[in-house]
């Protein structure tokens, strides 16, 4: 797993895609707020970390959060890099990830990054840290049915 890259500023917004929202284990309706909020299940750890996209790189490419969507029903969630680090996780750039065939790369893939367990912690610790991170995350777009 890649290490945290401190050159990614704390103010950096990280976006990631949900197949659709609301989604069980990813969101919950908050009666007090009258709206949905992010749950820890929205943070899915793969072998290399959790895929996300950096706002500043998207912006430099003339793109915004909507470029992260693949299908109209996709929802978009976000979190700040500083909040990721405050929960003992890290952020690592991963432009044009190697698992995407070169012919299938999209402009947004230049902005690809990973949320990582910087210290090699266990999956159990990942879940605990994501429980701390979830209240700091926001739903940018619920998707179109």
* Secondary structure: number of strands: 8
**Cα separation of the termini:** 35 Å
Describe the main β-sheet briefly: 6 strands, antiparallel
| Net shape | globular
State the secondary-structure class.
alpha+beta
The stretches of 5 or more residues where confidence is low (pLDDT under 50) are none
Helices, by number, come to: 3
Order of helices and strands: EEEEHEHEEHE
Rg for CA atoms? 15 Å
| Overall tally of domains | 1
Helix content: 10-25%
Strand residue content? 25-35%
The strands making up the biggest β-sheet line up spatially as: 6-7-4-1-5-8
Question: Mean pLDDT score, rounded?
Answer: 93
Q: What is the topology?
A:
Elements: E1 13-18, E2 27-30, E3 35-38, E4 50-54, H1 55-60, E5 75-80, H2 81-86, E6 90-93, E7 112-116, H3 123-133, E8 138-141
Antiparallel strand pairs: 1-4, 1-5, 2-3, 4-7, 5-8, 6-7
Task: Provide a compact summary of the structure.
With 145 residues, the protein is α+β, with helices and mostly antiparallel strands. 16% of the residues lie in helices and 26% in strands.
Tell me what you see in this structure.
By secondary structure, the protein is α+β, with helices and mostly antiparallel strands. The chain has one domain (13-141). Helix content is 16%, strand content 26%. It is built from three helices and eight strands. It has helices spanning 55-60, 81-86, 123-133; strands at residues 13-18, 27-30, 35-38, 50-54, 75-80, 90-93, 112-116, 138-141. The chain has a six-stranded antiparallel sheet. Strand 2 and strand 3 form a beta hairpin. It is globular. The termini are far apart. 30% of the residues are buried.
